[in-house]
Amino acid sequence: MSEAIVKESSTLVQVEDLVIKFPVRGKGEKKFITPVDRVSLEIKKGEVLALVGESGSGKTTIGRALVRLLTPTDGKIIVEGKAIDEYKGKALNEYRQTAQMIFQDPFGSLNPVKTIESHVKFPLKKHQGYKGEALDQKITDLLVQVGLTPVNEIRKKYPHELSGGQRQRLAIARALAVNPQFIVADEPTSMLDVSIRAGILQLMNDLKDDFGLSYLYITHDLASARYFGDRIMVLYGGRVMEIAESKELIKNPLNPYTKLLLAATPGSESQIDLTNMTNEPPDLTEGRQGCPFVHRCPLVTDLCKEKVPALEEVEDGHVVACHHYGSQALTF
Predict the structure, then answer these.
(1) Who wins on pLDDT, 122 or 272?
(2) What is the pTM assigned to this prediction?
């Protein structure tokens, strides 16, 4: 098994040039699409990295690769100083205790024939070895921590007897049962009523402090990314467009795609007119050229069509991939 040393002691997750390809059915020559194309990222201990982009940008694919539900085509995923690429059997099972995932659909991720108690009991017994009274007390403690009360009533119910918000709280409790260090939260509030989304995000934030967790928070909503994320990474067409601290990115977006995302956020004060913007999806075919946003960007030039923009650090911690990020025309 190969190993790599993390550059900083505070770094928990490090991704280097991640590539994920999927075959496309068709006649003749076998073809591929590349929903994740040379993505690198870093998540420090106790940090929330918000991964933002529209549907199809590659966010969930990256999240699934980090918890080893997908095998990358190329690149490295390093967690706690070790490359996880070759984890199998017992090593992969042990890694499940380090990294967990909260899925977008809380009902689809739960077993409909198992009680709420059973969902939490199994990982506590298998991964942490709880038994008897200690197991029963730990189940109670976890349900209380995620706000599923009264416990004696809730623990005997089934998932269909809970509200959407309660089911997501159960999914969070199940993830916590293995005592992870890192959680991929894949749009955990997008299928919930607006009135309860803030409560789930606040719960996740409280648990971050209580359990010393790090998160990859996947979302299409820049408003929640600013609220929950320490840093924001903007993704489009499987490529990184911009990275910065949350407040900095919202205040000073440099990439045209980031500006358009902000303009589309409810309550935005942006003066950008979105009515004539095309909604054409990005080109994900293998071997594509140029910037992935070239077909929708109002600032496109021949250079954009021919050359992929490199990620450049414009200011301390603020990185952008755009040939024209310094142009005054970015106020379009």
Answers:
(1) 122
(2) 0.91
